[in-house]
Amino acid sequence: MAISPENVRRRLRAEKRFRFYGVAALLSAASALVFLVSTIVSSGHTGFYRTTLKLEFDLDPQRLGIETPYTADTLRDGHYYTAVKHTLYALFPEVTSRAQKRELSKILSPGAALDLRQYVIDHPGQIGQAVSLEVPIASDFDQLYKGNLPRTGRHTRLSEAQMAWFDNLVERGLIEYRFNPGFFTGSDSRYPELAGIGGAITGSLFTLLVCFVLSFPLGIAASLYLEEFAPDNRLTRIIEANINNLAAVPSIIFGLLGLAVLLGFFGLPRGTPLVGGMVLALMTLPTIIISCRSSIRAVSPGVRQGAMALGASPVQVVFHQVLPAALPGTLTGTIIGMAQALGETAPLLMIGMVAFIASVPASPLDSSAALPVQIYLWAESAERGFVEKTAAAIIVIMSFLILMNILAVIIRSRTQTKVE
Predict the structure, then answer these.
(1) What letter does residue 194 receive in the DSSP assignment?
(2) Termini Cα distance of the chain
(3) Among 288, 400, 281, which Cα is nearest to 333's?
(4) Residue 78 contacts residue 63 (beta carbons within 8 Å)
């Protein structure tokens, strides 16, 4: 049957429309991604910096309220907050009333006294001398200097006098704006200018370590058994169906399982990376098994046949030939599963990794938060300073996820080259 020219033109128009729809869908997805990333970066890049006030302190032991001998215990009990306030008052001799001094002192962060105390403890030989230190300022003034807090309108929380005093400090060159390494090394705080993600990062690393140690060997062992040694019967098919179903189970179900079994029945410590890693291992295990089984199936039958022809036993064929050939896909699936576990929040909330932890955990048995949980906690806070901290933490976790995916590609390419 001959095709008319009109039918040909109609098909060509339909093909052009299909290509247009495909390009439009790609551009829409790319635009949405660019908008999301740019919004997060624009909101969070200031979170990696902090604003400080440069003050000249007279470390007079009488004014600081410290006594000899200068040990860590005696130096810790000094009147550092009073010393910091009086040093600030000295910059504004015109401020005399108690109400004005109270408003002026709000420029300082509670961390200012902590920094002064830590300096005195670390440098007892400087007692009795004048030193220059940069101390943190309160979150509202930090946000004002960064341009995140309006100077007028109902959203500003500062009085005109406070803004005038702060502007005076800026004009005198006493306000410094620097990169904040404490954001990566410090732990959570109720004050935005002092909060950091060091404790959350450490907790996430401990959690992922426990997850990897449990899920990777178990996943490979289960995959090898199901593909190479298990008989083809009803029990095996039921196990395979359950593994596939578990990969689609919502993560909060695994959290409920950890809450009921690991915490309720076995009595493991609540809110620790150990329990969090065990729960995430249960969630990641189906992904590793599925990816490993797919990689094992993709191994050429000639590899098995050649090894068997040379006299290798079935176990030797599996561990010396099949497993190395399936390792690239297995590692890729494992890293992707670990990246998914890194971003999970719901199961960690269920096992108690949502508490306020003001210290960096030293082991998987210490109470800890995780990076996604820390983001969740900061996002709930009403303080404006936590908005940029939340976005900055999201940038960090996105960077981790990108690095893990790049690592998966690199490992896959290198292991494939070695196998070939």
Answers:
(1) G
(2) 51
(3) 288
(4) no
CA atoms within 13 A on the CB side of 227: 24
Question: Strand, helix or coil at 55?
Answer: strand
Residue 163 CB partners (closer than 8 Å, separation 6+)? 144, 151
Domains of the chain: 46-180 (no CATH), 198-419 (1.10.3720.10)
Name residue, tokens 């495909």: 22
> Tens digit of pLDDT for each residue in 19-76?
999 999 999 999 999 999 999 999 899 999 999 999 999 998 888 888 888 888 888 8
pTM: 0.88
- Tokens in use for 15? 């093909």
Residue 355 CB contacts under 8 Å (≥ 6 apart), including other chains: 271, 367, 369
The span from the CA of 295 to the CA of 264, in Å, is 38
Identify the three-state secondary structure at position 201.
Answer: helix
Residue appearing with tokens 């830590």: 118
Q: Choose among 418, 375, 417, 415: nearest CA to 398.
A: 375
Using DSSP's 3-state secondary structure scheme, residue 132 falls into strand
Q: What token pair was written down for 175?
A: 């306000």
Q: What angle do CA 374, 179, 152 make, to 5 degrees?
A: 80
